[in-house]
Amino acid sequence: MRNSWKIYFKYVKMHFLVGLQYKGWWMAIIQQFIMCIIELIPTWLMFYRMGSIGEWSMERILLIYSLATTSFGIAESFCDGFAAFPWNMLRTGNFDRLLLRPKSLTLQVAGSVFTLYRLTRAVAGIGIAIWAMRRLGVPVTLFNILVIVLAIMGGVLMYSGVFIMSSGIGFFTIKALDWIFIFTYASYQVTRIPINYMPQLLKGVFTFMVPLLVISYYPSAAVCGWGKPWLGLIAFPAGAAFLAFSLLIWQFGIRHYKSTGS
Questions:
Q1: pLDDT tens digits for range 171-207
Q2: Among 145, 134, 129, 131, which Cα is nearest to 216's?
Q3: Radius of gyration in angstroms for the set of CA atoms belonging to the chain, rounded to a whole number
Q4: pLDDT digits 0-9 by tens, 96-114
Q5: Could you tell me which of 88, 119, 189, 201 has the fewest CB atoms within 10 Å of its CB?
Q6: pLDDT tens digits for range 4-18
Q7: Given 3-state DSSP classes, what are the helix, strand and coil percentages for the chain, each rounded to the nearest 5?
Q8: Do 74 and 12 contact (CB within 8 A), yes or no?
Q9: d(CA 71, CA 4)
Q10: Which of 83-92, 156-165, 200-209 has the lowest average pLDDT?
């Protein structure tokens, strides 16, 4: 397993150096950063026009949003191979080549794609989180730092699990799963809805099925004093549990995979 991790990081380094060969690589980073800012304009305009929504201020919403988008940005960067798996591996038959290598299939697929500019979302998310916590007067304590770090780590595990799960299901569909985007590229947008006004069905889905609110709302509530502090510590175990379940689906798909040569 240790050698598999070495190969994974070699893949990442290779893709990183290849990306730097393009003279306009920095433009992709700027474009991604601008997109992160544009995403926030509707939220800013809404609060600028209406003020606070009950006890929900713009800073509250952006703190929750920032934790989710930071986790998503990191997971998307280092698990992008799974996001492209149905196209790059299954439909082309390239997955057969990976089966011949005595290394972890999970890490081989994860490292098959890496783009530096996707980390821009994570950097922007961290910046927004720091700004929001300063505006909310969140004290810098060891507990608060621990909660935020565990929230981001748990979120990375959760989003990695979503990408891995979609690839596991892809073994049976052999094509892209458009509906899975609800839980990846669109899911962190849900955090811009105040949880008190969120439909119960939506709240249940993103708490118990895909623990998005567990890795964003509860940690934010813990450091800001909105709720019980211990709830902020469950983000990491919740993300780890979801990832473990996703890996089971991934392994189930591998066992039922039929080679393109069979």
A1: 887 665 666 677 777 777 788 888 888 888 888 888 8
A2: 129
A3: 19
A4: 888 887 788 888 888 888 8
A5: 201
A6: 778 788 878 887 777
A7: 75, 0, 25
A8: no
A9: 24
A10: 83-92
Angle between helices 119-136 and 217-224 (to 10 degrees): 30
Extract the tokens encoding 158: 């959760």
Report yes or no on whether pTM surpasses 0.85: yes
Hey, what are 210's tokens? 């895909």
Location of structure tokens 């700027």: 30
Nearest C-alpha neighbor of 158 from the set 243, 79, 74: 243
Q: Scan for tokens 């986790």, then name that residue.
A: 71
Q: Which long-range contacts (CB under 8 A, 24 or more apart) does 171-176 make?
A: 171/90, 171/253, 171/254, 171/256, 171/257, 172/253, 172/256, 173/86, 174/86, 174/90, 174/91, 175/86, 175/91, 176/86, 176/87
C-alpha to C-alpha distance for 49 and 44, rounded to whole angstroms: 9
How crowded is residue 230: how many other Cβ atoms within 10 Å of its Cβ? 10
Tokens of 167: 């690839």
